[in-house]
Amino acid sequence: MALIVQKYGGTSVGSPDRIAAVAEKVAGMRAQGHNIVVVVSAMSGETDRLIKLAKSVSDVPPARELDVLLATGEQTTIALLAMALTRIGCPARSYTGHQVHILTDSAFGKARIQDIDARRVHGDLNQGRVVVVAGFQGVDEEGNITTLGRGGSDTTGVALAAALKADECQIYTDVDGVYTTDPRVVPKAHRLHRITFEEMLEMASLGSKVLQIRSVEFAGKYKVPLRVLSSFVEGPGTLITYEESDMEAPLISGIAFNRDEAKLTVRGVPDKPGIAAQILGEIGKANINVDIIVQNVGADGTTDFTFTVHRGEYQKAMGVLKQVAQALKAREVVGDDKIVKISVVGVGMRSHAGIASQMFKALADEGINIQMISTSEIKISVVVEEKYLELGVRALHSTFGLDRPDEAA
Ligand code: ADP
Ligand code: ASP
Ligand code: MG
After folding, report:
1. Is there a contact between 304 and 269 (Cβ–Cβ < 8 Å)?
2. How far apart are CA 133 and CA 151, in angstroms?
3. pLDDT surpassing 50 at residue 409
4. How far is CA 158 from the centre of its chain?
5. Edge-to-edge order in the sheet of strand 92-95
6. What pLDDT, on a 0 to 100 scale, did the predictor assign at position 247?
């Protein structure tokens, strides 16, 4: 008898029929003798609807109140699923994040889970009940409702699995596993039978929204057995592994991309110590996260400095940078918010040279200009014009031999 945490995303609980189908699936697992904890998202579209509703009342809704509002999406689903389970004779109880003491910090809208009190959940499981927990939400020390950021129900699922020492955490979604790239962009993408935790972390960080980044971080920290599966079709899904298998790892496991990027350049800044710190210091003070940073080799005692930020923070970053530029007597500030980042990821890269040149040639062959480059041990990222996103991803997918049917289980 195993303890399994199952998380169902928005599409998987998107209608009364879907909720009934999830209830059948959960009841079936319980009938096999397993203890089941279910984490659910809001019904698909609901979180967006609530955000729009808030904006229709206030341009800048107070973060605390926005979280109170957004948490209702998941609260609706837990009640409906518990009802659907009870209707088919499967005893179940629903709980909000607060009720099972999902303690977070107070960063409304992007709170981090600090602790979970598993006693209540264990109590119900011991009574033979299925426990249904609201994803995406928690409570801070002062008792304020918090939310965990978009896609946060994944993190609730993995964090609960860690706290309960579950035998497996299953993330049920609308695709049947982790693919070599988003199958909606590249129809030839194929499902990976397994992916290493490190690769999954890179893929998530670089824009593959199939798992929230923090859920992967959590999984790695507590070595949670984690699997991504479809709630619509049966199948083995994709297993996240913690050791590189002794089988030869593929050179490149996947292609990730991120559309939410913008870049800013300050030209003609003095080429002397402390300038980068000064520029990025001001950006940091404004609470803007910086991603790729490039500084040109200086000439004539001046240099150019370019970095990327989240597209939603482009205007704010531009305002800050213009002020710094004035203080530094820089020549000019320019920017572009029509850029995207494409990355190739693979642990096999560690032991192979030549991946970068292969990547750059594939892009050049399609006439795609590379604006910025950033590398780490297991990934290479490039920034390109937004209009080349699909073309670039497809070209790389094919260049690295990923265009093929699903990997055998
Ligand atoms: P859920 O509502 O179940 O949390 P999400 O929309 O958050 O579902 O995540 C699933 C989606 O992630 C898929 O529909 C797919 O378009 C997208 N996706 C992006 N990259 C990948 C990838 N490498 N493998 C699988 N899905 C991906
Ligand atoms: N409902 C939240 C969102 O849409 C959390 C989640 O689905 O994981 O982002
Ligand atoms: Mg999601």
Report:
1. yes
2. 15
3. no
4. 13
5. 92-95, 130-134, 35-40, 3-8, 168-173, 226-230, 238-241, 194-196
6. 60
- What is the identity of the amino acid at 28? G
Q: 257 C-alpha vs ligand 1 centroid, how far in Å?
A: 12
Q: How many CB atoms lie within 10 A of CB 188?
A: 15
**Residue ID of nearest Cα to ligand 1 atom 9:** 210
pLDDT tens for 11-59 read: 999 999 999 999 999 999 999 999 999 999 999 999 999 999 999 999 9
Alpha-carbon 259 to chain mean position: 13
Domains and CATH numbers, the chain: 3-174 (3.40.1160.10), 255-399 (3.30.2130.10)
Beta pairing class for 254-270 and 238-241? unpaired
Q: Which residues of 154-167 are buried (b: 16+ CB within 10 A; e: fewer)?
A: bbbbbbbbbbbebe
For 92, phi then psi, to 5°, come to -150, 155
Give the residue, out of 12, 13, 41, 113, with the most ligand 2 atoms within 8 A of its beta carbon, to mutate for a pocket test.
41
| pTM above threshold 0.85 | yes
Burial class from Cβ neighbours inside 10 Å (0-12, 13-18, 19+) for residue 295 reads: middle
Look at residue 298 in the predicted model and tell me its pLDDT.
77
In terms of Cα–Cα distance, which of 90, 94, 116 is closest to 103? 116
- Ligand closest to 74 (CA) is 2
- 91 DSSP 8-state letter: -
Distance, CA 197 to ligand 1 centroid (Å)? Answer: 17
Q: For ligand 3, a single-atom ion, which residues have Cβ within 5 Å?
A: 9, 151
Ligand nearest to the CA of 8: 1
DSSP per residue, 299-345 = BTTEEEEEEEEEGGGHHHHHHHHHHHHHHHT-SEEEEEEEEEEEEEE
